[in-house]
Amino acid sequence: MLTRPQILALIPHQGTMCLIDDVTAWSVADITCGASSHLSPENPLRRNGRLGAICGIEYGLQAAALHGALVQGVARPGAVVTTGDGVADAPAPPGSGFLAALRDVTLHVDRLDDQRFGVLRVTAQAELQAASGAIYRFLIASEAGAPLVEGRGTIAFAAGSA
């Protein structure tokens, strides 16, 4: 549904820090993404040659940021986003936000860089969206659907950015 270049136009995470490869489905309530960056030796979250499961939080929150941008119809400054008919839309500036809280985080595995997981399925579901921030429930699962990391994140928007 959305490719990596389209994703890069929508979120501030660029280069290898953009962990999401594609969006397979989204609605006003949720988003489902695919990611294979957990297997890359260049993953910027790797430490001492491994990618700890705690890094799954970043995958979930990037999916939430992407969902928020899609719902609000925003893009990075200077980015050009095209609609399905190939017509370029003039992007609006994105709202900037920061992680304010994490709740109910469960790590079902010790690390994410296991090839047996295949392509990660990253989902984020909006529980609350307001001018001041948002709350998302996220789940990172293996390609087969086994839960790897899950939790809830509260994002606060900078004043005047929403």
Brief summary:
The chain has helices spanning 4-8, 56-72; strands at residues 22-26, 30-35, 81-82, 88-89, 97-107, 120-130, 133-141, 147-157. By secondary structure, it is mainly β.
Characterise the protein shown here:
It is a single chain. The chain has 162 residues and is mainly beta. The chain has one domain: Thiol Ester Dehydrase, Chain A (Roll), CATH 3.10.129.10. It contains 2 helices and 8 strands. The strands form 2 sheets. Strands 1-2-6-7-8-5 form a 6-stranded antiparallel β-sheet, covered by helices on one side. It has a two-stranded antiparallel sheet with strand order 3-4. Strand 7 and strand 8 form a beta hairpin. The two termini are 25 Å apart. About 12% of the residues have low confidence.
Secondary-structure blueprint:
Blueprint: H1 4-8, E1 22-26, E2 30-35, H2 56-72, E3 81-82, E4 88-89, E5 97-107, E6 120-130, E7 133-141, E8 147-157
Antiparallel strand pairs: 1-2, 2-6, 3-4, 5-8, 6-7, 7-8
List its salient traits.
single chain, 162 residues, mainly beta, Thiol Ester Dehydrase, Chain A, six-stranded antiparallel sheet, two-stranded antiparallel sheet
Largest sheet: 6 strands, antiparallel
Q: What's the alpha carbon Rg, rounded to whole Å?
A: 15 Å
Q: How many structurally independent domains?
A: 1
Q: CATH top level? A: Alpha Beta
**CATH homology group:** Hotdog Thioesterase
The total of beta strands comes to: 8
Uncertain spans: 76-94
CATH topology: Thiol Ester Dehydrase, Chain A
SSE string, helix = H, strand = E? HEEHEEEEEE
Structural class: mainly beta
Question: What general outline do the C-alpha atoms trace?
Answer: globular
Strand order of the largest sheet: 1-2-6-7-8-5
Number of helices: 2
Approximate strand percentage: 35-45%
Distance separating the two termini: 25 Å
- Name the CATH architecture: Roll
* Rounded average pLDDT: 87
Helix fraction?
Answer: 10-25%
